[in-house]
Amino acid sequence: MAAMSIVKINVLTVPEEQRETLEKRFASRAGTVENSDGFEWFELLRPVEGTDTYLVYTRWRSEEDFQKWMTGMSQASHGGGGEQGRPKPAASGSTLWTFEVVQQGAPKQ
Description:
Layout: E1 6-13, H1 19-28, E2 39-45, E3 53-60, H2 63-77, E4 93-100
Antiparallel strand pairs: 1-3, 1-4, 2-3
């Protein structure tokens, strides 16, 4: 069986008063991941009711592609002037989930 993609879901706890800030930050980062080698898909999922959890869904060709992107992001974030210029995080906590795609479907064309 051919290797399939991997999915990374970043589970963010976002207080209600920080939701707009989080969404604006994601909107302003548009394009930063899309040109990465092995990147396949991104979605920011807003909670509808009963939770303060946002899900950041990314899909990658391989774990190696994701790790290369993470390494590049880490280097880029440490290349500037340190913590002083960075805004306070909108999320109060995060957890990263990893899944392997074993089946998929799409609408018939």
